[in-house]
Every structure is written in C-alpha cells, then in structure tokens.
C-alpha cells in the first residue's frame, strides 16, 4: 500500500473556515488532519457500500431455492 501523500487545495467561505478551525482545535487536530480523516471515512463507506452491492447482486444472480419442484416445462405452462 502506497502511503505517500499529496496536497490538495480547497476553497471554503470565511465563515466555514473559522468554524473548521475551532472544530479542529477542539479535536486536537489540524484542519488538514481533520479533513483527511473525514475523506478517508467517506471513501471507506463508499467502498463498503460497493462491496455489499456486489455481494447482493451475486446472491441474486445465484438465485434462491425455495423448496418447490417444477413439474411442467416452460412450453407446457405457456400453451394456449
């Protein structure tokens, strides 16, 4: 896993910037650290959602055996 980091520039309103400074200080973090942590959480949640979606689709593709037995062919069922 590559742990090198790259800087990112964002634009915030003055009001938001002031609030995030206070929030970061309360948490004993920097603005950069606070934002990095939140982005990591967001990415992790997205990856977990996509993984769960793939698993659910695989289950649906596999199908479920409900215990019934098909006694007629499709053509027999659809005879007119």
Concise description?
The chain has helices at residues 14-26, 31-62, 74-77. It has 80 residues and is an all-alpha fold.
Q: How would you characterize the overall build of this protein?
A:
The protein is 61% helix and 0% strand. It contains three helices and no strands. The radius of gyration is 26 Å and the shape is rod-shaped. The protein has a domain at 31-63. With 80 residues, it is mainly alpha-helical. The mean pLDDT is 92. The chain has helices at 14-26, 31-62, 74-77.
* Intertermini distance: 62 Å
Mean pLDDT: 92
Number of strands: 0
**Beta fraction of the residues?**
under 5%
Helix content: 55-70%
Per DSSP, the total helix count is 3
Low-confidence stretches: none
Order of helices and strands: HHH
Helical/strand content category: mainly alpha
Any idea what the radius of gyration is? 26 Å
Broad shape: rod-shaped
Largest sheet: none
User: Oligomeric form of this entry?
Assistant: single chain
């Amino acid at each position: 896993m590559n742990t090198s980091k790259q800087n990112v520039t964002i634009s915030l309103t003055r009001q938001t910037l002031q609030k995030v400074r206070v929030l970061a200080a309360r948490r004993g973090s920097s603005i950069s650290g606070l934002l990095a942590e939140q982005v990591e959480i967001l990415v992790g949640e997205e990856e977990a959602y996509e993984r769960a979606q793939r698993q659910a689709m695989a289950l649906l593709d596999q199908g479920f055996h409900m215990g019934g037995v098909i006694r007629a062919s499709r053509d027999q069922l659809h005879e007119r």
